[in-house]
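Structure tokens please, single chain.
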Amino acid sequence: MDPSLAFTIPTDGSSRPTGLEPLLGGVLREKAVWVDESVCIGCRYCANVCPNTFLIEPDFGRSRAVRQDGDSTQHLQEAIDTCPVSCIHWVNYEQLEQLRQYLAEQQFQALGFAAPSRRRRPK
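Here you go.
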């Protein structure tokens, strides 16, 4: 990539960012990845395949997409295809806020291995 391309973008605000600027990587996905945490069983496969995109939420032990640009589309599709409960989906970016609100209204029960145990084995 030619760094001089950065100087071809107007700085006076006359053009709005499109996401295709070289400084942003040149390509934006058309869809966002989203995890329906109400269905997730916490198998952690997605976090192993795409560690820059998925995080296991510590309080409930469920997967969450924390970055949309963390891993390649091919790796994300592998995580989606191999999810045992099909809780990972491609959605429109415009839907993300509505889906986050949906999850905020849900009540979750922690999965058995969500928080690390503070109990120690006797010596």
